[in-house]
Design a protein that fits this description.
6-stranded parallel sheet, alpha/beta
């Protein structure tokens, strides 16, 4: 099963991960020379800075923080970041809190409170560096007044199972939070605030990444109601949350900070790595391996199994057009969703791969890979999976019914039995998925 094409796919994926390593990205945007600190296009003399604080959250923030420490060292007065369990580094000046993802937990609440406490220490001569990446939404669970962590956990579970997009999920998160949707920027004010972001959302929307804690939020409580109605979960969420959102819609709760809020006058948000960079690295790697290469999409979204069908339909059509002796490699990226109806274990990438396997059954020789760049697909230890036109036949010969596993949303156990898993461990970056 592990032929050259499997090896090439994993090599291409691994090279794309290297291209979006957050520690390398940080060094492109932060440097210190002759007592002048360069932050992207800004140059700030150290004499103009009284104290430097570092805060942040996300799956990729530990290596970002390590790079910041390597650059600034003891110039950092204090710092705290919140990361997913296992996604850590050895740091000297910045405290790390490990917490739950994708469902927030008590450690995350403690971490978020610590981040806010630190931000509120900053005055107008201080500098706050905020490090954000995907996963920050779950890792900074600071419920709005009157709500509890348990409320947020239940809402998160319902949204993740509903098929809602990350934009929709984060719209809700921002409106039941005391730190997201620009509130962290308000806590940092009047200090200078620079936020460095590893993007895990389509279009690099800064208001969505980690639910935009340092960026203006243009969404509203009305948007929250519309989303909850759309996915038929308004009456399933905890009553306290429902009342909070409905009161906000009626103007009885304050909206998230908008672009005219004074705190954003001293705030800058900078994207340092994204899915496009990973895709282009994959493209160049495939070229070097001798493939004829085409990028299909930078913005895949929608239901995983439907997207799998769409991708493979495109490829089947394109195979007829390409002429020559070279092997073909098609690349796409983005972030799909899964509407969970079964009780199995899996993630959007494994579900997409299993769907692809069923489509490819007894078809042309196509090898299909779908993986999460963070190394964790859903609540599993797999980044994703690789399938081909023989995967289903192999399963059937083992008396394993792939359709049953797909309908049970149990793709992880399917690949555990049949083979095809891609296991990378935590990559310490997170720029959505690659196909």
């Amino acid at each position: 099963m592990k032929n050259r094409y499997y090896q090439d796919l994993q090599f291409i994926f691994n090279e794309s991960i290297k291209a979006v390593k957050p520690d390398n990205a940080i060094r492109k945007y932060i440097s210190l020379e002759e007592n002048v600190l360069s932050l992207a296009s800004d140059r700030i003399p150290l004499v103009d800075i009284e104290r430097i604080f570092v805060v942040g959250a996300g799956k990729a923030t530990a290596p970002m923080a390590k790079a910041v420490e390597d650059i600034l060292g003891s110039l950092i007065d204090e710092g705290q970041i919140v990361v997913k369990y296992g996604h850590t580094e050895n740091l000297k000046f910045i405290k790390i809190i490990e917490a739950g993802h994708p469902i927030p937990d008590q450690k995350g609440l403690v971490g978020a409170e610590g981040v806010v406490e630190l931000a509120m220490k900053a005055n107008k001569r201080d500098l706050v560096l905020c490090l954000l990446s995907g996963g920050g939404s779950a890792l900074l669970p600071m419920p709005a007044k009157g709500l509890t962590l348990e409320d947020k956990q239940e809402v998160t579970r319902l949204l993740l199972r509903s098929g809602a997009t990350i934009h929709e999920i984060n719209t809700i998160r921002k409106h039941i939070s005391g730190i997201k949707g620009g509130f962290l920027a308000r806590y940092c004010y009047p200090a200078k605030l620079f936020t460095f972001v590893v993007s895990d959302v389509i279009g690099d929307d800064l208001s969505v990444i980690a639910s935009g804690p340092t960026y203006p939020d243009n969404s509203t409580f009305q948007d929250c109601v519309d989303i909850l109605v759309k996915y038929e979960i308004l009456d399933l969420i905890p009553l306290t949350v429902k009342n909070h959102i409905l009161e906000g819609k009626s103007g009885l709760k304050p909206e998230t900070p908008k672009s005219n809020d004074e705190c954003f006058e001293k705030t800058k948000n900078i994207i340092i790595a994204n899915n496009r960079i990973a895709i282009e690295s994959a493209y160049n790697t495939a070229l070097k391996l001798g493939y004829e290469v085409e990028i299909l999409a930078y913005d895949l979204e929608g239901e995983s199994r439907i997207v799998a069908k769409s991708i493979l339909t495109q490829i089947m059509d394109k195979i007829k057009i390409y002429k020559g002796t070279k092997d073909l490699c098609f690349i796409a990226g983005g972030e799909t969703t899964v509407t969970v109806k079964g009780g199995g274990l899996g993630g959007r990438n494994q579900e997409m791969a299993l769907s692809a396997a069923l489509i490819l059954h007894n078809g042309p020789e196509i090898f299909f890979m779908s993986c999460g760049t963070d190394g964790n697909d859903g609540p599993t230890d797999a980044a994703g999976a690789i399938v081909d036109n023989s995967t289903v036949s192999r399963a059937l010969s083992m008396n394993i019914d792939p359709s049953y596993y797909l309908e049970s949303n149990d793709s992880y156990n399917f690949f555990k039995k049949v083979g095809g898993h891609v296991i990378t461990g935590p990559t310490n970056t997170n720029v959505m998925d690659l196909q």
